[in-house]
Amino acid sequence: xxxxxxxxxxxxxxxxxxxxxxxxxxxxxxxxxxxxxxxxxxxxxxxxxxxxxxxxxxxxxxxxxxxxxxxxxxxxxxxxxxxxxxxxxxxxxxxxxxxxxxxxxxxxxxxxxxxxxxxxxxxxxxxxxxxxxxxxxxxxxxxxxxxxxxxxxxxxxxxxxxxxxxxxxxxxxxxxxxxxxxxxxxxxxxxxxxxxxxxxxxxxxxxxxxxxxxxxxxxxxxxxxxxxxxxxxxxxxxxxxxxxxxxxxxxxxxxxxxxxxxxxxxxxxxxxxxxxxxxxxxxxxxxxxxxxxxxxxxxxxxxxxxxxxxxxxxxxxxxxxxxxxxxxx
Length: 329
What we know:
The protein is an alpha+beta fold. It contains eleven helices and twelve strands. Strands 4-5-10-7-9-8 form a six-stranded mixed β-barrel, surrounded by four helices. Strand 2 and strand 3 form a beta hairpin. The model is unreliable at 231-262 and 278-285 (pLDDT under 50).
């Protein structure tokens, strides 16, 4: 009985479609076109997503990145929150050596590299630009992003300061390879200034407004700009004005230095160096800390391993209490 009812309903529907076909054709056409546009739109969105992924993962961010958890959200370009007149220094990555050892044990990892991110005013003469600076070890960074191309000059030599600019950045600054570039960062009512040579001109294989803001600098220079130097966290002793000017030893060192003068009465460079020589720890004051990074970028052999590697890093972080924040591109 029920089957018969279904058959009757189907026959009536088919008969109505046949009798009213002329009136239904526009509606059918609209539905067909809408469905095709939906499929086409999904295909275009998927292709655009793949293009973005390829552009950023292969040239800027890698498949995964690791940083320390913080109160604010940070990316390679700094804090997401915008505070007028204040530069937020990104947090230091905890247990970097352990993270590197963990990644070295994973066969899914193709390459990895640390990054110190900072924002600086880049100047040559009277020309200046605000840029995002990535402090890197250039040999590791070149292995991580082999698509980067050097059109003139080259990367700085290992252990030496230097910056590489993009073609358009160099054009606006009228800078040539070998010239000195000044980098300035202002934060906490103070300035940090470094002068480094322009060693090369590089370019990304894709054109993107975000990528156009990036310049690469040696890691130690970026660390110094962010204040990651020995002695930066030590507070000066509190001395009152009365105690300062009441001290008989205020100029005592000058007398001591006079006593150390060579026999001919003139102060030699060796006399000065010997007098002001300190222990190894004090001699490091002001030098960049070589163990400091903000981000660690990871490139995988296959993007399908992203979930597995991410889960392994999060487990290692939780087990050791390192508070690593693992994110995709």
